[in-house]
Write a structure and sequence with these properties.
By secondary structure, the protein is mainly alpha-helical. The protein has a domain of 53 residues. The longest helix has 29 residues. It is elongated, with a radius of gyration of 19 Å.
């Protein structure tokens, strides 16, 4: 699973912290705890943050691939400069 580095600004994350509670079936909790140990996550929060980051990264990669296909199919416009956005 994708992990972030430890060089982040701790105060930045404390200022942005919001609490989200979820309910999971026992089997899912066991799977989370196994993956936490396997990937050396200190907390469930750290695990879920990494999971969400990976999901968002994958979503972006999928959107980029759709855009590439559209360009190859001639459905897009290749911009040569920022002026082309206007």
């Amino acid at each position: 699973m994708w992990r972030t580095g430890y060089n982040c600004n701790i105060n930045y994350y404390k200022a942005m912290r919001n609490i989200v509670n979820i309910s999971l079936p026992k089997e899912m909790v066991q799977a989370v705890e196994e993956k936490m140990k396997e990937n050396h996550y200190a907390t469930k929060s750290e695990f879920f943050r990494a999971l969400l980051r990976a999901w968002l990264e994958n979503k972006l990669m999928n959107e980029l691939e759709v855009s590439r296909r559209e360009l190859r199919a001639g459905k897009g416009k290749l911009l040569k400069s920022l002026k082309d956005l206007r």
